[in-house]
Amino acid sequence: MHLTSARHRMAGLDQAGTMKRISLALAAGSMILLGGATACSSGSSDGAGQGGAANAAGSQAAPAQTGAQSSTPSAADTQGGAQAGSPEIVEAPAAVQVPPGNKRVANFRGEGVQIYGCTDGAWKLIKPSAIMTEGTKSVALHDAGPIWTSTVDGSTVAATAVPGKAVQHTDAIPEILLKSDKDTGKGVFGTVTYIQRLATKGGLAPTGACNAGDVTATPYSAEYAFWAAN
């Protein structure tokens, strides 16, 4: 009886700690969103440009792509290579390349958590919760949908993973290609057609069984490339 009670107390502490971390992450995101909205209303000139994101947490090198998508693209429009004055842009594996007729419009780093809940004794993804950065500047939030919301200009893009367009990893969530479902606003996300999630780190669901009602958050990072029609 004493051992069982101790285990129950420990489980409760673990879950409480997890929920506290999730709450802190969401609170931080909300503060950034509000800050961005204030900056927009006051005419701030901070824009979400298309420079590469900093590799602060160490990015995972993806396999090289199998060829350029147009005969004479600029460095910013290709799915690999460096953009002038920016950190190196992560190359996209062949499996998640964007169809011809699109150009890269932004490249941000995402850091946050993948949130999982227990359903029928197994961990199921509830949603991501991450902050997008360009260099050292926070520029967007990533949440359930999945959806990306610019904290600079208020534009949004919701997208769905393209079936069969993924690169699986044993130690991280897969690299994937997503297609835009809906864009809003006239900012950085207003005309996005495709999104690539690249160089993923962490984010996997816990292994083993779980109990109904359990929730956990697994830290992750990834490089996100946003594309629009030419």
UniProtKB/TrEMBL annotation:
Protein name in UniProt: DUF3455 domain-containing protein
InterPro entries noted in UniProt: DUF3455 (IPR021851)
Superkingdom of origin organism: Bacteria
Any one Pfam family match given in the protein's UniProt record, by short name: DUF3455
The species this protein was found in: Amycolatopsis carbonis
Source organism phylogeny: Bacteria, Bacillati, Actinomycetota, Actinomycetes, Pseudonocardiales
Biased composition (Low complexity): 53-72
Disordered: region residues: 44-85
